[in-house]
Amino acid sequence: MCGIIGYVGQADSERPLEVAREALARLQYRGYDSAGVVVANSRGLHHVKKAGKLSVLEEALAATPLPPATAVIGHTRWATHGGPTDRNAHPHLSADGSVAVVHNGILENHQALREELASAGVEFLSETDTEVAAHLLARAYDGLGDLPEAMRAVARRLEGAFTLLAVAADNPHLVVGARRTSPLVVGLGEGENFLGSDVAAFVARTNRALELGEDQVVAITATGVMVTDFDGQAVEPREFTVDWDASAAVKGGFATFMEKEIHDQPQAVRDTLLGRMTPSGRMRLDELRVEESLLRSVDKIVVIACGTAAYAGHVAKYAIEHWCRIPVEVELAHEFRYRDPVVNAKMLVVAISQSGETMDTIMAIRHAREQGAKVLAVVNTMGSTIARESDAALYTHAGPEVAVASTKAFLAQITATYLLGLYLAQLRGTMFPDEVRSILRELEQMPAKVQRVIDGEAAIKALAVQMKDTSSVLFLGRHVGYPVAMEGALKLKELAYIHAEGFAAGELKHGPIALIDQGQAVFVVVPSPKGRDVLHDKVLSNIQEVRARGARTLVVAEEGDDAVAQHADTVFWVPQTPTLLAPLVAVVPLQIFACALATAKGLDVDQPRNLAKSVTVE
Ligand code: M6R
Q1: Cα 54 to chain centroid, rounded
Q2: How many Cβ atoms are within 10 Å of 250's Cβ, its own excluded?
Q3: Fewer CB atoms < 10 Å away: N or C end of the chain?
């Protein structure tokens, strides 16, 4: 779960270091417990690496500037093997200093390789799995005299998941990369080329990119890119254009990415909806390359995802089952993968992921495809592993999400899965065309409604500041409000480090109500009174039940719901919305609350402790 950048330009300059610093800043969401860079020029390799956030590396670079160079590799780390220390930070150099490597992933056979190298007299300086790759590469390079060939030889010996980048002291015009399972993309510049964990690394410099496949080695110079498989057979990579606006990845006047991304949400929903209706009023999902006959005949949908993306899947289940009358199961990808699930060609697997690099989801996708199921990815990152390895990809157009805690990707994922549901309903004839159109029109109003909730953020922030010493918050919801409650709790856990749980409100009396004590804060997501009256009334009863036992009730309810106010200590009003679409507005106050409370506690909301944005190891 680390971020990697590689770059080669034409002549010695400050540019390689500038490129690396900018890329590492953008890639910090992949890990941020240490960082390092190594530049290459005709005088060899020069490196700096430091434990701590990127600012610590920046200070070290200011104190000891690196010389002008032609090439660079850089790394921002999320520790797996060996704690976050200067010695364990990347790059790792071979004992003779001839090569330097950076690595993302886990080398599963590192212990055996370490013992082999140690018995040959190699002394290790770090506790990382990565260091074996540096020593192996130096030895292979010494024997073969060709860095790509040496990288292929090393890659064939490694087990596990890895992206490796390497640069050699005697060739400052070449950076070589290898990938198995972990991500790596190429950026094509004019007289310069880039390698990055994802396109965010170089999107400010070029929007031309190449996808790399499994078990491939890439060599970049200032003017060329050569890709082969691990056996040296040439491979023709697919070029794609990155349509992200680079400015979307900077804070745009907000104090944090998290705040910016909460404010980006109306646009994320709008962009995800763009271009989905033909002039004749029929829905189209152009990028969906699964045969219509399969979409018509599938008898079950299984959604696989992790974290927030899984909660988006739970919301999708309510909508897709209602609109399409297809059973939908939602399962955490890591549970799906290792429980021997019944999978067959009659089911459609929908994998939801912002990063497209979540290893648990990738493994589940591979398993489902091996068992004969088609996989449709709902994914935000173009060129990502999940987009590439699935049979089809439906893109959420949320733009780059940098804050570790997901916000705008969640709304975009929900929106995209609604589109999928409506498309299936149209195709399978479970809804009339005018019904589909009417829901699409409702969806088109959602960006403005989300904006209205954001416009009312001051009251939510004030409450959050007042509650900054709270140690436990519960969240209740029914129907689509249930995944919203779980997402609200997750946001509070990960941002504010507060114990928080989301429950199905109906489950309250089966246990969780025992937690209610005087002053216990309970958020309740109330369904629309106009949707399914029975649900609304039941949730009002749940509010009264917890209030009678001393709870402080903080209620998210629809404007005009006159019955609610008398039962709530505080109400956050959201615009009137059809029940199935309500999560798009109901979750926003919970995101704002978690962000503001964490900020009031003085915490880093963009980079919460122990987390990485992209969980690229299982
Ligand atoms: O990139 P993905 O959508 O696959 O990531 C899935 C989860 O790791 C992610 O949603 C995680 O739960 C976030 N920290 C939530 O804020």
Answers
A1: 20
A2: 15
A3: C
State which of 258, 306, 336, 395 you would mutate to test the pocket of ligand 1, scoring each by most atoms of that ligand within 8 A of its C-beta: 306
Strands 216-220 vs 300-305: parallel, antiparallel or unpaired: unpaired
Ligand 1 atom at minimum distance from 361 CA: 4
Ligand 1 center–CA 408 separation, angstroms? 12
Q: For 452-618, CATH number? A: 3.40.50.10490
H or E stretch covering 489? helix 481-496
Cis peptide before 91 (omega within 30 of 0): yes
Dist. CA 515 → ligand 1 center (Å): 28
Cβ proximity of 164 and 155 under 8 Å = yes
- What is the maximum alpha-carbon separation in the chain? 79
Nearest to 313 by CA among 394, 414, 422: 414
Q: Note the pLDDT tens digit of each residue in 398-445.
A: 888 989 999 999 999 999 999 999 999 999 999 999 999 999 999 999
Strand order, beta sheet including 185-188? 44-51, 34-41, 69-77, 3-13, 193-196, 185-188, 208-211, 239-241
The protein residue with its alpha carbon nearest to ligand 1, atom 9, reads 307
> How far away, in angstroms, is 545 Cα from ligand 1 center?
33
Backbone angles phi, psi at 330, to 5 degrees: -120, 130
Tokens of 291: 């045969």
The HSE-up count of residue 294 (CA atoms within 13 Å, CB side) is 18
If you measure from the C-alpha of residue 309 to the centroid of ligand 1, how many angstroms do you get, rounded to a whole number? 6
| Nearest of 560, 594, 565, 564 to residue 577 by alpha carbon | 560
| Ligand 1 atom, smallest distance to 611 CA | 14
Contact 168, 153 (CB under 8 A): no
Alpha-carbon distances of 255 from 260, 299, 321, 488, rounded to whole Å: 8, 47, 40, 22
Q: What digits encode the pLDDT tens for the residues 11-64?
A: 999 999 999 999 999 888 777 789 999 999 999 999 999 999 899 999 999 999
The hierarchical CATH code for the domain 251-444 is 3.40.50.10490
Residue type, 612: A
CA contacts within 13 A on the Cβ side of 1 = 23
| pTM of structure | 0.80
Asked if residue 473 lies in contact with residue 523, where contact means CB atoms within 8 angstroms, the answer is: yes
Residues 515 and 108: their CA atoms lie apart, in Å, by 43
**Contact in structure between 540 and 529 (CB atoms under 8 Å):** no
Tell me if the domain spanning 3-248 has CATH number 3.90.550.10. Answer: no
| Token duo for residue 241 | 């254009």
**Distance (Å, whole) CA 36 – CA 539:** 52
Q: Enumerate the active-site residues.
A: 2, 613
Equal fold, 3-248 vs 452-618:
no
Pocket of ligand 1 (CB under 6 A): 306-309, 353-355, 358, 361, 404-406, 494, 611, 614-615
> What ranges make up the beta strands (E) of 272-342?
300-305, 328-332
Domain range summary for the chain, segments of one domain joined by +: 3-248, 251-444, 452-618
Kindly report, residue by residue over 209-264, the tens digit of the pLDDT: 999 999 999 999 999 999 999 999 999 999 999 877 766 667 777 899 999 999 99
